[in-house]
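Much of what follows relies on a compact textual record of a protein's fold. Here is one such record, which you should read through line by line:
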Amino acid sequence: MESRALKMGTSPMGKLILSMSIPAMFSMMVQALYNVIDGIFISNVSEAALTAVTLIFPINMLIIAISVGTGIGVNSLIARRLGQKLYEEANNVASQSYRLVFISGGVFAFLGFFFSRSFVELFTANQFVIDNATIYCQIVTVLSIFIMMQINNDRILQAQGNMIVPMVTNLIGATTHIILAYFLIFGHGIFPELGVTGAAVATVSGEGVGVALGTYYVFGREHLIKIKIRGFKINLQIIKSIYAVGFPAIVMQSLASVMLLALNGILIGYSEAAVAVLGVYFRTQAFIFMPVFGLTQGIMPIIGYNYGAKNKERLMRAYKIALLMAISIMAFGTAVFQLIPNQIFDLFSATPEMYSIGIYAFRVISIGFILAAYGIICSVFFQGMGHGMYSLLVSLARQLVGIIPLAFIFSNIFGLYGIWWAFPASELIGTVASSIVLYIIYVKEIESLDEESIFIRS
C-alpha cells in the first residue's frame, strides 16, 4: 500500500499520469453519459420537463461544488502529507473529512426540503415546471449525503494512488442510475411512470449504490490511510488546512452554479427553449470536459506528492504532460461541436426553435474550449501545491468578470445570439489571469525548489 503512494514520486511521469488518470477519466465519462441519457429521456417527456430539470441543475452543481471542493482540499492535504511521510497526519485528515460530509449533507437536506418551491417560483409561473422542478429538487437535496459521501470516498482513495476502486464504484452507480431512469421515467413492468420525479429517484438511487460500495471498500479493507470513527474529536486546525485549498475550490466550483442561475435568468426572458438549449449544452459538453476533469483527479495527488517531496523536475513535467493531454481532448471536442451540432440536438427531440438557437450556440461556445483546457490544468496545478486562493482568483476572473456580466452586456447589445459569445470571451480572460498567476508562483516558489529550501505550507 505504501508503494502505491511512493510510485507518485518514482514512476515514469507519462505512464504514471495515464495510469492515474484513465480510470478517473473513464469514471467521469460514465457520469457524463448518464447525464446525457437522463436529458434524452426527459426531453422525450416534453420540452417543459427538460426546462424543469435544467432549472434545478444549478442546485445539483452547488451540491457537487461543496463535495468536490472539500474533496480537493482533502486530496491535496493527504497527498502532501504522504509526500512528507507524515502518515498519522494523513490519517487524521481523512477522518475529519467524514464529519464535514455529514454537516454539509444536513444543511442541504434542510434547505431543500423547505425552500425548493420558493426557489423554482423565482424563475417561472408555469405550474407544470414549478411542480416537477420542486419535487426533483427536494429529492436530490434531501439525499445529497449520497453524492457527498461518494466523492469523499473517491478522493481519499485517489490521494493514496488508488484510481481503480473509484472508477468501479462510479461505473456500477451510473449503470444503476441509467437502468432505473429508463424504467422510472417512462414506466415499464412493475415500475410506475414518474416522469421528472423518476429521474430524481434514479439519480439518488445510483448514488446510493455507489456510496455503499465505496464505503465498504474504504472501511472494510486495509489501506495506507487509517480512518478513525469512534473517540475522534473534531480538529479545527486540520479543517482549516483542508479548507485553505478546499474553500477556494468550493467557491470556484460554485461559480459555475451561480453562472448557470444567472444565465437561466437571462435566457428565460427570451424563451423556455433557450433555457432548454443551455440544459442540452451543459449535459453534452460534459463528454468533452469530464475527461479533462478526470485527468485533473489523476494529476492532483501527483502534483501534491512531488511538491511535498520537493521534486521540481517531476512537478513541472506533470504539469506539461497534463496540459498537452487536456489540449488534445479539447481540440477533439471543438471539432465535434463545430461539425455535428445538428446530430446532437436530434438526440434530444429538439423543437425547431431549439435547433435555431442551439446550433449557433454550440459553434460559438466551442471556440473557447482549448483556452478552457489551459485554465483547468493551471487551476489544478495551483490547488495541488496548496494555492487554493490562486485558483479562486482565476475562476473569479473567468466567471464574475467574464461570463455573467458579458452575457448581460452582449444580450442588451446583440440580443439572444450575443449571449453565447460571453463563453469564449470569458475563457480568454481566464487564460490571461492563469498565465499571470502561473508566472508569479513559478518565480516565487518553483524556480528555487530543491531539497534544502522549500516552504511547506500547512
Remarks:
- The longest helix spans residues 47-83.
- Residues 451-458 have pLDDT under 50 and may be disordered.
- The two ends are 25 Å apart (CA to CA).
